[in-house]
Amino acid sequence: MFSQSSAVPSAFFKRAASGAVQRRLASTKSLRETLQEVIPRKQEQLKKLKAQHAQTVLGDVKVEHVIGGMRGLKAMLWEASVLDPNEGIRFHGLTIPDCQKQLPTAPGGKEILPESMLWLLLTGEAPVEDQVRGLSAELAVKGGLPPYVEELIDSLPPSLHPMTQLGMGVAALNKESVFAEAYEKGIKKTDYWTYTLEDCINLIARLPALAARIYRNVYNPGADLPGVDQNLDLVGNYARMLGFKNEDLTEYLRLYIAIHGDHEGGNASAHTAHLVGSTLSDPYLSYSAALYALAGPLHGLANQEVLRWQLAMQKELGDNITHNQIKEYLWKTLNSGQVIPGYGHGVLRNPDPRFMALQEFCDSRPELLRSKTIQMVKKTYEVAPGVLKEHGKTKNPYPNVDATSGCVLYHYGLTQFKYYTVIFGVSRALGALTQLVWARALGLPIERPKSLSMDAIEKQIKASA
Ligand SMILES: CC(=O)SCCNC(=O)CCNC(=O)[C@H](O)C(C)(C)COP(=O)(O)OP(=O)(O)OC[C@H]1O[C@@H](n2cnc3c(N)ncnc32)[C@H](O)[C@@H]1OP(=O)(O)O
Ligand SMILES: O=C([O-])CC(=O)C(=O)O
Hints:
Elements: H1 10-14, H2 19-26, H3 31-53, H4 63-67, E1 81-84, E2 88-91, H5 96-102, H6 114-123, H7 129-141, H8 147-154, H9 162-172, H10 178-185, H11 192-219, H12 234-242, H13 247-259, H14 268-277, H15 283-294, H16 302-317, H17 323-335, H18 353-363, H19 366-369, H20 372-391, H21 402-411, H22 420-441, H23 454-464
Antiparallel strand pairs: 1-2
Helix pairs in contact: 6-13, 6-22, 7-11, 8-9, 8-11, 9-11, 9-15, 10-11, 11-12, 11-22, 12-13, 13-22, 14-15, 14-22, 15-22, 16-21, 17-20, 18-21, 20-21
């Protein structure tokens, strides 16, 4: 079951004498082999934490945490990434620019491959190119949809939001769950993670075909839908199945999907996957639930909302919009009691480095710099933080990733913005499913925090006064 190994060219072994190559050779293990090595070390680390530091205090629980969405409360274990309010996300310690330097790209490409990010998230190690090619090949082999899922998706009304369809398709795939099947037969707790891993890989492999089928049905009914090409990487296949041949868009999608993959554990989608998974619900059901958290406008759906808002502004004010006009439009939105989509964040207190990475992608391409929509996003960024500071409510007046992600898709012809959160959903699987593997490998328990009523809080306040 766990025999997949990367293809290692023979020339590679001939160079194995030097120390550098030894190190490289050591890292040409398959994903399963790497995890078999990494997991015992992490299990040992957890055992020590439990034995030696179970009572160490990490912070206080205040009334503001209980009534304020648990903001800032340190209450979850999450292995793959940690978010710093000022510098943003680090994946196993690597920033986005570090990942851009260290993680393998597609042949001839420049952007991080989501497979590289998945490998890093799962193992904590940056993969070498052969390992990533092996993983791409495995995902392509496993990328087809079972016929009953195709039939289910084809039977849905095209007016059903693409995110509703994605969640349904992912949930239906649980008929395939090797974890659920093995659990029913009876397996040891220490073996849970291996079956969970297989489900997670299978689900990540199938997401592009599922997401592309939804796109075809909703926006291009009757159009041909190519099968999975065994020679392409995950996003190469996704772009092809969506019907786009533009390599720049494919590269953008690779970057987009890689950097949206994980944002530590407390965000609503990742946390939902973790919570549902903690009941030993299988990865398909856990991730389906996560997708419905992602589909909220304060979370992943904001990328759809940003474009809707920007286009309404463009419609009202025309193409050659000035900074002052944007300022007035921002105030109009705020004064009508709405949020500025794409701005603010639950944790970040600076511009989101994912926003910056996507802006850099635009800056490196003259045709994107000429796009009126992209120019408008940039001008909004130049004005919005000042307006939001003056407005004085949001703790973070800066853009999050959703402020820019959709406008590039729009420029490249993927103009159906109700679809944008589906692309986010293809991406978030990388981190949310990684954590399910780790939760099973570490034997984490069912999540069950204590809740309090207001009366109970007041009673406790009186008792401690
Ligand atoms: C991938 C992602 O999920 S990134 C986030 C995507 N979401 C968005 O872009 C939607 C717009 N942003 C927001 O609504 C918020 O900033 C959130 C949901 C992201 C974070 O919420 P919080 O942690 O509660 O933010 P914060 O503590 O700064 O909120 C304080 C006040 O500022 C308001 N505020 C926060 N952001 C904004 C904004 N962009 N525009 C207007 N008001 C805002 C809040 O609504 C809140 O108002 P209230 O006191 O009347 O309830
Ligand atoms: O971290 C958060 O709360 C929201 C976010 O940016 C993400 O999930 O990508």
